[in-house]
Q: What sequence folds into this?
């Protein structure tokens, strides 16, 4: 995959926008994709913890917490319990399972700040999960709307 980073003017503009809508969309997408897996008791230690995923080259910080119903978007807190920072491309490589989080961490392309024990729990749990293959075609608006319509009608 050819390296890609959002241009600085884009990240500057995105960082000026309210971040809550991005976190809301992110949490809903993750809930649609992984809700049953997020309800496993292995995630219990994460309940109520403030987590921030910072996409540094996009100027986006996604704040959320996990509760028994799944991920819940939050407004930015003064000090999240855990902050995970990487570029958009590195997060995509992680999601596609084309890159190992340990490799990114030791290359300083993935940074964890705050409760590192919590960060290791998240990393190890995600590594151990059987996840469906991520197909970018499934993220097209028409595909997402079809899945939402199917879930609402059944």
A:
């Amino acid at each position: 995959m050819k390296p890609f980073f959002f241009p600085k003017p884009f990240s500057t503009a995105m960082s000026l926008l309210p971040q809550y809508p991005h976190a809301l969309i992110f949490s809903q997408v993750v809930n649609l994709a992984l809700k049953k897996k997020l309800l496993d008791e292995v995630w219990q230690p994460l309940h109520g913890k403030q987590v921030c995923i910072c996409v540094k080259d996009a100027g986006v910080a996604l704040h959320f917490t996990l509760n028994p119903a799944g991920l819940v978007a939050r407004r930015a807190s003064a000090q999240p319990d855990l902050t995970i920072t990487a570029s958009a491309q590195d997060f995509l490589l992680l999601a596609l399972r084309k890159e190992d989080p340990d490799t990114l961490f030791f290359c300083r392309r993935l940074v964890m700040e705050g409760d590192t024990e919590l960060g290791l729990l998240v990393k190890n749990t995600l590594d151990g999960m059987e996840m469906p293959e991520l197909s970018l075609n499934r993220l097209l608006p028409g595909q997402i709307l079809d899945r939402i319509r199917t879930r609402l009608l059944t």
Observations:
- The domain at 11-153 is CATH 3.30.1050.10 (Nonspecific Lipid-transfer Protein; Chain A).
- The chain has a mean pLDDT of 83.
